[in-house]
Specification:
Layout (H helix, E strand, L loop, with lengths): L11 H10 L11 H28 L21 E2 L2 E2 H4 L3 E3 L2 E3 L14 E4 L9 E4 L4 E5 L4 E6 L2 E2 L7 E10 L7 H6 L21 E7 L2 E10 L8 E3 L3 E4 H10 L4 E6 L4 H4 L20 E2 L2
Length: 296
Amino acid sequence: MFSKLPEWDIDPGCVGTHSLDLMDSRGIMSDSPLFLERLNRRVFLGVSALGAASVALSACTTTDVAPSPAAPPVPAPPPPSESAFGAAESMYAARVDEGYQLPAIPVAKLDPKFVRQIVPDPTGEKPGTIVVDTSEHFLYLVRDGGQAIRYGVSLGKAGFGWTGSAVVQARKKWPVWTPPPEMIQRRPELAKYKDGMPPGPQSPLGARALYLFRDGKDTMYRLHGTPEWDSIGKNASSGCVRFMNQDIIDLYSRVNGVAQVYVRPNLSPAGKISAVSNRTAEPIDAGVPRDAEFLK
């Protein structure tokens, strides 16, 4: 089938030793099964080597791939000195209100928890309700959406604390303070104010007063401002609830109608149903001023 190749056509340097292995003793390419098997194996190895080289080459090349879009930055939380109302320094800065100069509150000396702030409502009451937690010296004004505004307050000193319910029935901006006869008798130096102390930053009632009633009668309890900002968080009043003046101005602006008030020993279920204590308030004034606004 095959003719013998001339001897000068066989160049071992070109064919190689593996090619010589495929020749028979006569120097003729064999068509034997062994020949075909070896040929097929060498073709397979050659193709495999070529594929490996291609893979290696592709591994060394770079492909331009569009970068994934960067995730939007997560906003940093506000610093501890700020709340939903802004920086405490701004809330309690000196200001002029209704013609009266209010001094700044030194917030650096104020416990941060007593700074006015919006918090999750812990009371479970309906919006517009006012709840005083006497154990923590907090007053909450319940808002919509499960929130409340929390204010730090000063409460009744020993013998003058109380719990129970009332309503805000009247309110007054910069009220004249008139000490009651009982107070003047106990403190004769107040006799000069028997006809009323002019309103101003040093007035014991501060910048605003909200008057609490029960069953249509004045309880003699007040929610009011005080120049004694350092009494906040303490039991120092005669039974009334004291605020920093900047805070009572804020609360006053939000109470535009009769508002339910609960004064509780704590916010636990037991505190909510606790019996009303005996009222032992020392009257702070001679009664609701005639020019006060009565709420409906």
